[in-house]
Amino acid sequence: MVTTSRRYRIEHRTVYRYSDDVSASYGRGYLHPRDTPDQRCLDHRLLVEPEPSDAADGVDVYGNTSTYFHVTRPHTELCVVGLSEVEVSVPRWDRENASLPWERALPTPSTDPRAIEFILPSLLVQLPPEVRRYAATSFTPGRPMVQALTDLNHRIHTQFKYESGATSVSSTVLDVLEARAGVCQDFAHLAVACLRSLGLACRYVSGYLATYPPPGEERMIGVDASHAWAAVRLADGSWVGFDPTNDTLGDERYTTIAWGRDYDDVPPLRGVIFTDAETHEMDVAVDVAPMP
Fold first, then answer.
1. 166 and 190 Cβ atoms separated by less than 8 Å
2. What is the pTM of this model?
3. Are 290 and 6 in contact (CB under 8 A)?
4. Are 121 and 248 within one domain?
5. What Rg value do the Cα atoms of the chain yield, rounded?
6. Which CATH number belongs to the domain containing residue 258 in this structure?
7. Of 102, 122, 166, 279, which one has the greatest count of Cβ atoms within 10 A?
8. 182's torsion region: left (phi>0), alpha (psi -120 to 50) or beta?
9. CATH (domain of 279)
10. Splitting the chain (292 residues) into consecutive groups of 10 residues, what average pLDDT does each group show?
11. How many CA atoms lie within 13 A of 5 on its CB side?
């Protein structure tokens, strides 16, 4: 029997430690899985310690759910845990539309005004000529979208080295292209930039990828991490996820948390603190566990 959906229990734990008291902490987190045609969020809780004096959920312009919290008790450690249960199905995108020439998917304000924002440059996804030239090798005139997309995915996967520390928060898409190294966030930004440089609508996706141990070995708990990939709009207005870090199209292993123009739209956590602390450290542990 072919499995068409999977359930996961996801724990995303972030711990901040400070060298002196923090008198107040404001935070906002994108940790709530989205509901989509291929995904259902069965349950979600956000636990914050110390307990916030104020907290509220909100929905942004892209339909993502975020949670705001305000901690007013003095603390030297802040722990934020997102607990979720999700069911993810095999994505149902139209193979016929994906086989049309990629130019057929170019959106216009009249055909899909909501997609136009995803063809424009953003703070972390600039569109220098070098990016367009890199993309054009895969997206030759008249080539079927799925073939061009698969080729670009494979080229980024094989031509770039996954290397933590090769980039920083200030690195640009051009920096990544020149260094030929980075992490999943960098490769997602590069892929998004490639497609936008051609006029295609492409969004940055934040979420999780379930990993499985080799046969006969037990799962290691807490070794997964948040992940990033991209999604491109097809001619019929549907979207296909693709992951250049792992050279694959999106499937039921991928849990979507949020999407936007780039990472800055949907970071797992960001905030402001009031403190005299000179140093701090952060530990992040993510566990994506299959459920029966």
1. no
2. 0.94
3. yes
4. yes
5. 20
6. 3.10.620.30
7. 102
8. left
9. 2.60.40.2250
10. 80 96 95 96 97 96 96 96 97 90 93 92 96 98 98 97 86 92 95 98 97 72 80 95 95 96 96 91 93 89
11. 11
